C-alpha cells in the first residue's frame, strides 16, 4: 500500500513538473515605470499579466518595465524578431508602420473619447491589420499616452504668434519638427534623457508633452507656463508577435486578445486619472496654465495641420489614403455626437 502511494506521488509529481514545463512564458516589455497607480503602460502591463494568468494555466507573463530591455526602438525590433513576445510602444510605431503616423496629425481629435471611438472601430481594426501585414505584430489593444501640450519658461502662449522666437525641445520625428516650425517656434530635437538639463540651462525655452509626463518628471519645476492646446493625441500600441500568437491554442488566443483589450482600457483610464491629478498639482505648485479659446485653437489648427498633412502625404506616398480614412472616421464620430 505504501509502495502504491509512493508511486502515485512520484507520478503525480512528474505530471505536475510536465505541466509546468509546458507553460509558455510571455515577455512583456515597455519603457514606463512599473506602477499601476501612475504609469499608463505600467497599469496596462499589470492588467495584462493578471488577466492572462488568472484565466490560463498554460501562460505566464514576465514584465520588463522602465526600459529594462531597451528603448521603444529596441523593444519593438525584439518583438518583430520574436525575442520578446509583447511590447507596448507609442512613438516608435510609426517607424515600423508609417501609416500609424497619421494618428499624430495635430488637432485631429477633440476629446479622448472621440479618439477611442475611432481606434476601437473600423478604422482602428483596419490600421491594426495593415500594421500586422507590415511588421508581423498583432495589435491587441490601443492605450493612451495623452494629449500633448506646450510649456515654456518665457511668457504665456495664447496663440501661434506667442510662439515666435521660442525654442522648443521636440522628439526627433519629422512630424513634430514640422509642427513647431509651422506654429512659428524653433524646434530642437533633443533626446528625452537630456530634456531636463536643456530646460534648466536655457538651451531651449520650452517643450511639449502630456500633462502627466510633465508632472511625473517634475518639468513644472523648470517651466512657468503651460498652454492646454492639446495639439496631438498620442496613442499606445499593445503588440504581440504574430508567430508566437499563432502558436497558442485557440483558447489561449482568446484569453490573450481579451487581456489586450482590458489592458488598453486600463492604460487609458490611468492616463486620464494621472493627467487630471497632474493638472491640479502643477497649478497648486505655481505653474500658470492657460486654456485657449475656440477661436485661438482654430488659429493653431489652421497653421499646424496643413503643413503636417502635406509632409505625411509625401512620406506615405501610395499609403497617403490613410489620412483620408482617419478624417472620415473622425467626421463620422462628430456626426454621431451631433445626432
> How many domains make up the 3D coordinates?
1
Specify the helix fraction band: 40-55%
Task: Let me know the largest β-sheet.
Answer: 9 strands, mixed
Distance between the termini: 77 Å
- Silhouette: globular
Signal peptide: 1-23
Organism: Kushneria phyllosphaerae
Pfam families: DctP (PF03480)
InterPro entries: DctP_fam, TRAP_DctP, TRAP_DctP_sf
Can you tell me about this structure?
With 339 residues, the protein is α/β, with parallel strands linked by helices. It has one domain (2-338): D-Maltodextrin-Binding Protein, domain 2 (3-Layer(aba) Sandwich). It contains 13 helices and nine strands. The N and C termini lie far apart (77 Å). The model is unreliable at 1-21 (pLDDT under 50).
SSE layout:
Elements: H1 2-22, E1 24-29, H2 40-55, E2 59-64, H3 72-81, E3 86-89, H4 93-96, H5 112-119, H6 122-135, E4 137-152, E5 167-170, H7 174-182, E6 186-189, H8 195-200, E7 206-210, H9 211-216, E8 225-241, H10 242-247, H11 250-284, E9 288-290, H12 294-316, H13 321-338
Parallel strand pairs: 1-2, 1-3, 5-6, 5-7, 8-9
Antiparallel strand pairs: 3-8, 4-7, 4-8
Which characteristics define this entry?
339 residues; alpha/beta; D-Maltodextrin-Binding Protein, domain 2; 9-stranded mixed β-sheet; globular; TRAP_DctP_sf; DctP_fam; transport; TRAP_DctP
Amino acid at each position: 500500500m505504501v509502495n502504491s502511494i509512493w508511486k502515485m506521488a512520484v507520478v503525480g509529481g512528474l505530471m505536475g513538473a510536465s505541466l509546468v514545463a509546458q507553460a509558455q512564458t510571455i515577455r512583456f516589455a515597455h519603457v514606463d515605470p512599473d506602477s499601476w497607480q501612475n504609469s499608463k503602460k505600467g497599469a496596462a502591463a499589470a492588467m495584462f499579466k493578471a488577466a492572462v494568468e488568472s484565466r490560463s494555466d498554460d501562460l505566464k507573463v514576465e514584465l520588463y518595465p522602465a526600459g529594462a530591455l531597451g528603448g521603444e526602438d529596441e523593444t519593438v525590433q525584439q518583438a518583430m524578431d520574436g525575442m520578446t513576445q509583447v511590447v507596448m510602444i507609442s512613438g516608435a510605431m510609426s517607424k515600423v508602420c508609417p501609416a500609424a503616423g497619421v494618428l499624430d496629425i495635430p488637432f485631429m481629435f477633440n476629446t479622448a473619447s472621440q479618439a477611442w471611438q475611432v481606434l476601437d472601430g473600423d478604422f482602428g481594426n483596419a490600421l491594426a491589420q495593415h500594421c500586422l501585414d507590415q511588421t508581423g505584430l498583432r495589435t491587441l489593444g490601443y492605450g493612451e499616452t495623452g494629449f500633448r501640450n506646450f510649456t515654456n519658461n518665457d511668457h504665456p502662449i495664447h496663440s501661434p504668434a506667442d510662439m515666435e522666437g521660442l525654442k522648443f525641445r521636440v522628439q526627433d520625428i519629422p512630424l513634430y519638427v514640422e509642427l513647431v516650425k509651422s506654429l512659428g517656434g524653433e524646434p530642437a530635437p533633443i533626446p528625452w534623457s537630456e530634456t531636463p538639463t536643456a530646460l534648466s540651462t536655457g538651451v531651449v525655452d520650452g517643450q511639449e508633452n502630456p500633462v502627466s509626463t510633465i508632472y511625473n518628471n517634475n518639468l513644472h519645476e523648470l517651466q512657468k507656463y503651460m498652454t492646454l492646446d492639446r495639439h496631438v493625441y498620442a496613442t499606445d500600441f499593445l503588440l504581440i508577435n504574430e508567430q508566437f500568437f499563432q502558436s497558442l491554442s485557440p483558447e489561449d488566443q482568446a484569453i490573450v486578445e481579451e487581456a489586450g483589450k482590458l489592458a488598453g482600457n486600463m492604460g487609458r483610464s490611468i492616463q486620464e486619472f494621472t493627467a487630471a491629478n497632474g493638472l491640479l498639482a502643477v497649478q497648486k505648485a505655481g505653474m500658470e496654465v492657460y486654456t485657449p479659446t475656440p477661436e485661438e485653437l482654430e488659429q493653431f489648427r489652421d497653421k499646424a495641420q496643413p503643413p503636417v498633412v502635406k509632409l505625411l502625404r509625401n512620406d506615405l506616398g501610395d499609403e497617403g489614403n490613410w489620412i483620408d480614412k482617419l478624417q472620415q472616421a473622425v467626421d463620422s464620430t462628430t456626426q454621431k455626437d451631433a445626432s
